[in-house]
Amino acid sequence: MAPATATAADNARNPFGLVYRGALTANEAGKVNIRPVSYKLNGLDIAANVYTPPGYDAARRYPAIVVAHPNGGVKEQVAGLYAQRLAELGYIAIAADAAYQGGSGGLPRSIDKPAFRIEDIHGAADFITRYAGVDAARLGLLGICGGGGYSLAAAATDKRFKAIATLSMFNSGRVRRNGFADSQVRTIEARLRQASTARAQEAAGGEILYAGDADMTDAQIAALPFEMYRQGYEYYWKTHAHPNSTFKYTTSSLLDLMRWDATDSIALIDQPLLMIAGSKADSLYMTEEAFPKAVGTTDKALVRIDGATHIETYWVPAYVAAAMDSLTPFFARTIEAPPT
């Protein structure tokens, strides 16, 4: 992990706050540029970065892609990396912080409710389709980790998205309900009672309780049973740490998360669908179980990146390149061509 650690240190002073390898450090004429923006969504200020392609000309018409970030992530991490790569190909790409998270507004902080995360994706589409130079008829969607699960739900009904791709899809509802790899099924009712108590406490004006965050030692992290979480702590706390990124979410959010599933309406997706995951990811089962449920589209593919784990698809250059090798022809075929 040493090369990534060095990269994180180098990017600590990035003028745009970006913490990924090869991030932009300045806007230069003729190259990919990053444009921090803010817009309103249901009364909240949403913080986002728009990446424009080389030679961007507002008078031209470009396809656009919304990139939805992982659970606990922010736009300056992996979502920004893939948005930048897509912009290099000629797309206008937007990576926005979820409401109540990152640099976006909303109180209490770190609410993680599916309805809000899905609305974030609709809102990003609202904004980017009105951005100068965007051809609203050529809009794509890329969801990463938790953002992938929420993207499946958003695209099921939002037909502005002409093509949908997921990378290392994480089914937040299933995991919060059943535990990772269904390891906590026996405690569902007890955890629901805890979430109900937390909501009652919030409603009464009491302390807001949080789940998912922990101050763990290296030894404790190494002892975690799932590689995704071990590498996740390394990524989010060390190599690609960002002050706005946190694992925590309000305990009361579990009332919403635990009754939801990323595949609930997946059969409504009739657009082209590409699902990418690492062959060695211990989260792979979520993609493999979701894919066959997408019965509404015949234009679909599941790609396994050989040798990659979940978190490694976020930053390892070879695996990022492999993901782009699938995303590039997929979006070129499904949204690049002008509408007939």
Task: Describe the fold and architecture.
By secondary structure, the protein is α/β, with parallel strands linked by helices. The chain has twelve helices and ten strands. Strands 1-2-4-3-5-6-9-10 form an eight-stranded mixed sheet, sandwiched between helices. Helix 3 crosses helix 4 (146-157). The protein starts with a helix and ends with a helix.
Determine and state the CATH class: Alpha Beta
Distance between the termini: 48 Å
Radius of gyration: 19 Å
Average pLDDT value? 94
**Biggest sheet, spatial arrangement of strands:** 1-2-4-3-5-6-9-10
CATH homologous superfamily heading: Alpha/Beta hydrolase fold, catalytic domain
Helix-and-strand structural type: alpha/beta
Total number of beta strands: 10
Could you write a compact summary of the structure shown?
By secondary structure, the protein is α/β, with parallel strands linked by helices. It has helices at 2-11, 78-88, 114-128, 146-157, 172-178, 188-203, 218-222, 227-239, 254-257, 284-290, 312-315, 317-336, and strands at 33-41, 44-52, 62-68, 92-96, 134-144, 161-167, 210-211, 249-250, 273-278, 300-305.
Keywords:
single chain, 340 residues, alpha/beta, Rossmann fold, 8-stranded mixed sheet, two-stranded antiparallel ribbon, 12 helices, 10 strands, globular
